[in-house]
């Protein structure tokens, strides 16, 4: 992604390190964003309640209410994009954040310029018009997806899907029988031209837990070894 593709908005930066907050603020403001700062989870939730930001940059290691709990509470009330800041060795927390619905992450120590590019990339994707599949309704046995309403049911029961999980499900169901690499899914569903492909793995795992009779032996979303994933439909 290049500087020319930058998208601007209201950004809330949540980090208990004053130096990190100041550096991130300066880079984001140079990129044209309006920036608000919070030093802990409680202040972050209060600021979100006062004025909904367009995106939240969220450190996971926060005093009091930690970043994972902040992300969990945000997802109960909002689909605001979240870019997590994590330490290099915090893989489990990173995966947990993605499972809660975070959109991207950057590991510390990080390049402030890279963070600014990722923020613009996530903002651009969140605002982009998603190409609608030809079908307004996708069916696979007891699985029913109402595309315009952005809702899905399994056996008549409503499925609780994050924004990314829903987009991934619609994309795969709209292209049955075709194998996609993780890089292709990152580009087609997330709109990223760079990023950690484990993001796709986590979201596929979460989808399987919600739509498969036995997630350990999936019949809908198949793993194509050495390639990626393919939607086969329920058997």
From TrEMBL:
GO terms for cellular component: cytosol; protein-DNA complex. Gene3D superfamilies: 3.40.50.2300, 6.10.250.690, Winged helix-like DNA-binding domain superfamily/Winged helix DNA-binding domain (1.10.10.10). The keyword Ribosomal protein does not apply. Residues 135-233 form the OmpR/PhoB-type domain. Signal peptide: none annotated. GO terms for biological process: regulation of DNA-templated transcription. Residues 10-123 form the Response regulatory domain. Keywords: DNA-binding, Phosphoprotein, Transcription, Transcription regulation, Two-component regulatory system. CDD domains: REC_OmpR, trans_reg_C. GO terms for molecular function: phosphorelay response regulator activity; transcription cis-regulatory region binding. Residues 135-233 bind DNA. The modification 4-aspartylphosphate is found at residue 59. PANTHER family: DNA-BINDING DUAL TRANSCRIPTIONAL REGULATOR OMPR, REGULATOR OF RPOS. This is Response regulator transcription factor. It comes from Solihabitans fulvus.
């Amino acid at each position: 992604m290049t500087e020319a593709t930058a998208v601007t908005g209201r950004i809330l930066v949540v980090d208990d390190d004053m130096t990190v907050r100041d550096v991130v603020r300066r880079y984001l403001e140079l990129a044209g964003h309006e920036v608000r700062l919070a030093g802990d989870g409680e202040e972050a939730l209060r600021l979100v309640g006062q004025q909904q930001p367009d995106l939240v940059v969220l450190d996971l290691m926060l005093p009091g209410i930690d970043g994972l709990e902040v992300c969990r509470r945000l997802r109960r009330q909002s689909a605001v994009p979240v870019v997590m800041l994590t330490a290099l060795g915090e893989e489990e927390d990173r995966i947990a954040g993605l499972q809660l619905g975070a959109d991207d992450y950057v590991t510390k120590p990080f390049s402030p310029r890279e963070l600014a590019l990722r923020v613009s990339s996530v903002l651009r994707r969140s605002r982009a018009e998603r190409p609608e599949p030809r079908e307004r309704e996708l069916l696979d046995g007891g699985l029913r997806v109402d595309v315009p309403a952005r809702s899905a049911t399994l056996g008549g029961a409503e499925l609780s899907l994050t924004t990314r999980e829903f987009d991934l499900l619609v994309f795969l169901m709209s292209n049955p029988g075709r194998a996609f690499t993780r890089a292709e899914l990152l580009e087609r569903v997330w709109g990223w031209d760079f990023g950690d492909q484990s993001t796709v793995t986590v979201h596929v795992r979460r989808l399987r837990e919600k739509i498969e009779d036995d997630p350990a032996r999936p019949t809908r979303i198949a793993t194509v070894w050495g390639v990626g994933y393919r939607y086969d439909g329920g058997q």
